[in-house]
Design a protein that fits this description.
6 helices, mainly alpha, 118 residues
Length: 118
């Protein structure tokens, strides 16, 4: 049942994003930022953990999960460092994901020889 819940919740998130892309004039980058901010907002209110427990990877893999990770990092840093944690928590929590994206993107560019669109 865990796989089924992850599949339909993740699919629903992707379907809603696809509808948003096709029915509005929002650019994909803005939609991605909207998803991250929505994940952070859901995490702020404490709703993300029950959602994550129900949907598993269907909730943690999309960009909503990245927003949750950023908010958890900020929450921990504020508890540890006070006000300055607002500025350092997101960077610490998101550093691994950003670094991995850069490294794997670079490796992929070496392997597949990307070309500019003409």
């Amino acid at each position: 049942m865990d796989y089924l819940n992850a599949f339909w919740v993740g699919g629903l998130i992707c379907a809603l994003v696809q509808i948003l892309m096709e029915k509005t004039k929002l650019m994909p980058g803005r939609i991605m930022v909207l998803l991250v901010c929505t994940g952070a907002l859901i995490s702020f209110f404490g709703w993300y953990e029950p959602f994550l427990e129900y949907a598993g990877a269907g909730a943690s893999v999309p960009l909503l999960g990245y927003g949750n990770i950023l908010m958890q990092g900020v929450r921990e840093a504020v508890a540890e460092s006070g006000f300055i944690g607002l500025f350092q928590g997101g960077f610490k929590a998101g550093a691994v994901g950003c670094s991995a994206a850069l490294v794997f993107g670079y490796l992929a560019s070496l392997l597949f020889r990307p070309k500019m669109k003409g």
